[in-house]
Amino acid sequence: MRKIVPLMTLTAFAALVAFVALPPRSLAQQPSQEEPRAADAEPAPFNPQMSALMSMLIQPRHAKLGLAGKAENWALAGYAFKELKQGVAVISRAVPRWKGLPVPDLFDAALSPSFAVLDFAIKAGEPHQFAQAYERLTQGCNNCHSTMEHPFVVIRAPDGNGPFPNQEFKPAAR
């Protein structure tokens, strides 16, 4: 029994030393001063996929162009047409080749034939010419999708206000 008491005392003393040597729990959970915080890290380069760019830049502008033309809001149609062409230019620079093919050339072949007529129809305020040119533009999109092995991505003229219930497409009263 005499040997057990000193052994228990020694064990208790060792546990006390180990407990005192540990840092307080709140300090142990804090990151060290040398670790960079995620908020201070350099941002990653923006490098979206082709489908994301098409969904962000082309599809909504195509829809807005169609809705503005249908409402005969030529000022808004002109703006949407300019934005659509700028979106095409942005994607052409961001993704110059896709599946080994030159993206600017694909866009040119699919869209350019309708661009001149659309521009004229918008400036002249010609709803019939606009509708025909817009249909050719839409068909050009779908032809490009088929060429790029995505025939299941089918674009159509929007009906109603489409995905933009918070935007008015009718021309403002003067």
What's the helix and strand layout?
Blueprint: H1 4-21, H2 25-29, H3 50-70, H4 74-94, E1 97-98, E2 101-102, H5 103-124, H6 127-147
Antiparallel strand pairs: 1-2
Helix pairs in contact: 3-4, 3-6, 4-5, 5-6
Helical fraction: 55-70%
Name of the CATH architecture of the domain at 50-147: Up-down Bundle
User: Spans of 5+ residues with little confidence (pLDDT < 50)?
Assistant: none
| Coarse shape | globular
Determine the CATH topology of the domain at 50-147: Four Helix Bundle (Hemerythrin (Met), subunit A)
Note the run of SSEs as H and E. HHHHEEHH
In CATH, what is the class of the domain at 50-147? Mainly Alpha
Q: Overall mean pLDDT score?
A: 85
Give the number of helices: 6
- State Rg: 32 Å
- Strand order within the widest beta sheet: 1-2
Structural class: mainly alpha
Determine the N-to-C terminus distance: 106 Å
Query: What percentage of amino acids are in beta strands?
Result: under 5%
What composes the largest sheet? 2 strands, antiparallel
Oligomer: single chain
Count of individual beta strands: 2
Can you walk through the features of this model?
The chain has 174 residues and is an all-alpha fold. The protein has a domain of 98 residues: Four Helix Bundle (Hemerythrin (Met), subunit A). Helices cover 62% and strands 2% of the residues. The protein is built from 6 helices and 2 strands; from the N terminus they run H-H-H-H-E-E-H-H. The protein has a two-stranded antiparallel sheet. A hairpin with a 2-residue loop joins strand 1 and strand 2. Helix 5 runs antiparallel to helix 6. The model has no long low-confidence stretch (mean pLDDT 85).
